[in-house]
Amino acid sequence: MAMLTPDLIEKYVYSLYRQKNSQLTEMRQYAEDNLVPIITRDAERLIYTLCAIKKPEKILEIGTAIGYSAICYGIAAPEAEITTIEVRERSVFKARKNIEKIGFEDRIKVICGKAEEVLPEIEGEFDIIFIDAAKGQYRKFFDLCEKNMSRGTLIISDNVLYKGMPCDESYIDERRNKTIARRMQDYLSFLFEDERFETSLLAIGDGIALSYYK
Ligand SMILES: C[S@@+](CC[C@H](N)C(=O)[O-])C[C@H]1O[C@@H](n2cnc3c(N)ncnc32)[C@H](O)[C@@H]1O
Questions:
Q1: What is the whole-number distance in angstroms between the Cα of residue 192 and the centre of ligand 1?
Q2: Which of 5, 59, 98, 181 is packed most tightly, with the most Cβ within 10 A?
Q3: What do you get for the CA distance between the two ends of the chain, in Å?
Q4: Residues having CB within 6 Å of any atom of ligand 1
């Protein structure tokens, strides 16, 4: 029997993917052309499915880039108010333009700043918290938004398998990534061991951890 390879699966999964909106098609093309890291197509699908199940009303995102995933949440959860944090001013500008273009400016608020500095000021509880910024800081981000979690909150952490580096040291290409890989291992161990959360790790895109606050 032929072995299933990740490439074979990815190619097939991507062939099933259908874009929800022509603006998102343009934005994905822009991201590819300009090397902006945005969620993969299968991670995008997961967002739609999770939002269909959960019907979130409040979503917090850490790491906006050009606003692609924030807009996906906006489409996937038409009732939701979304707060998203981005440190790069140029990205914030671009994200706000994209958000206005699709008409979500009343529902998606982009805050410009370092998440470490912005998060302590964020009030209220969120139904979904999406962590997709500096890969070495996930535990810090998580701790800073613990006050915004309650039973039922779903924490989605993207890129937790960081190009395979947390799984196998031989994938580590540079020194800086060694720290990121170790911190990601620590973060995943924390998520799996903390009994308040039910966590599973999905080999989707660059790895997604789903943690449900029980
Ligand atoms: C992977 S991209 C986000 C992609 C976006 N979620 C999407 O899928 O469309 C990560 C973003 O996090 C931002 N970032 C990195 N460190 C950050 C920090 N400490 N605080 C806020 N944003 C940060 C980067 O500038 C970058 O735009």
A1: 24
A2: 59
A3: 41
A4: 37-39, 63, 65, 68-69, 85-88, 91, 114-116, 132-134, 137
Task: From first to last of the 214 residues of the chain, give the pLDDT tens digit.
Answer: 566 677 888 888 889 988 889 999 999 999 999 999 999 999 999 999 999 999 999 999 999 999 999 999 999 999 999 999 999 999 999 999 999 999 999 999 999 999 999 999 999 999 999 999 999 999 999 999 999 999 999 999 999 998 888 887 878 788 888 888 899 999 999 999 999 999 999 998 899 999 999 9
Q: How far apart are CA 151 and CA 139, in angstroms?
A: 19
Name residue, tokens 């490439």.
7
Domains of the chain: which residue ranges?
35-213
**What distance in angstroms lies between residue 4's CA and the mean position of ligand 1's atoms?**
32
Ligand 1 nearest atom to the CA of residue 88, by list position: 25
Q: Are 69 and 98 in contact (CB under 8 A)?
A: no
CATH class for the domain made up of 35-213:
alpha beta
Q: Which atom of ligand 1 approaches the CA of 141 most closely? A: 19
CB contact at 8 A, 180 and 186? no
